[in-house]
Amino acid sequence: MRIELFGRPYNRTDRVQWTLEELGVPYEYRKLDVFALEHRSGEFRDLYGLTRLPFVRLDDEVLFESGAIMLALAEHFRSKVDLLPESGSVDYREVLQWLFFAVSTLDAADESLPSNAEPTAFAPLVDVLTFLEETLAERTCIAASRFTIADIALSNNLKYVDDDFSGYPHIARYFKEHTSRPAYRRMLAQPEYKGSR
Ligand SMILES: N[C@@H](CCC(=O)N[C@@H](CS)C(=O)NCC(=O)O)C(=O)O
To answer: Which residues does 94 contact at the CB level (< 8 Å), separation at least 6?
Structure first.
């Protein structure tokens, strides 16, 4: 399968690129200059009208939404590298739960809200981190007792939490452990990543 990844470093593209690096499959990285609005220009708008990054082209099929792309890739290449339990299993459901937690609840968590704020559409970040800290106290991997795409999504997202995780030692340990993986390090070492933040 020919895989083209459209995106830019240090954004949600990283979740997908990290997944590809874990899978060890070849892909073409189409780095787009969002500040020059390249991603909104004709060729790319024709592929995905909303022009949000990342999206991929798998042979002739265009797929968007980073979580869906991760699931599709992990499923397709499961026999090569196992990042996703068999569908229908309890482990699979747990991975889905934490994948969606990372790409929705953590993604949208609001750092301006105090703990136990009035009910809102988005969770206070402090509450999300406290919950994660409690959960990770007894886990090395967030779901299925092994490394999966849920860990990729979660630990990659944690890097955008502008915090050194002081007061959250279990999150700090989890983050350090997973971002020390060779696949993550390979992503950071790639030329397209240079100078990005
Ligand atoms: N839920 C989508 C969000 C995609 C998204 O909003 N991406 C942002 C950057 S991380 C983007 O493309 N921004 C470009 C713009 O605002 O023009 C996903 O996870 O793929």
So the answer is: 143, 144, 150
Give the amino acid at 23: L
* Ligand 1 pocket residues where CB is under 6 Å: 11-12, 34, 52-54, 65-66, 103
Average pLDDT over the chain, rounded to an integer: 95
**How does pLDDT run across 19-50, given as a tens digit for each residue?**
999 999 999 999 999 999 999 998 999 999 99
Q: Are 153 and 166 in contact (CB under 8 A)?
A: no
CA distance 111 to 123: 9
Domain identity same for 69 and 106: no
Range of 59's domain?
Answer: 3-81+183-193
69 and 31 share a domain? yes
Answer whether 91's CB lies under 8 Å from 103's CB.
no
DSSP β-ladder status, 3-7 and 28-31: parallel
- Which two structure tokens, joined as six digits, stand for 25? 């499959």
- Cα(73) to ligand 1 centroid in Å equals 19
For the question of whether the overall pTM of this predicted structure is more than 0.90, the answer is yes
Structure tokens given for 121:
């559409």
Nearest CA to ligand 1 atom 2: 65
Phi, psi of 7 (to 5 degrees): 175, -160
How many domains are contained in the chain? 2
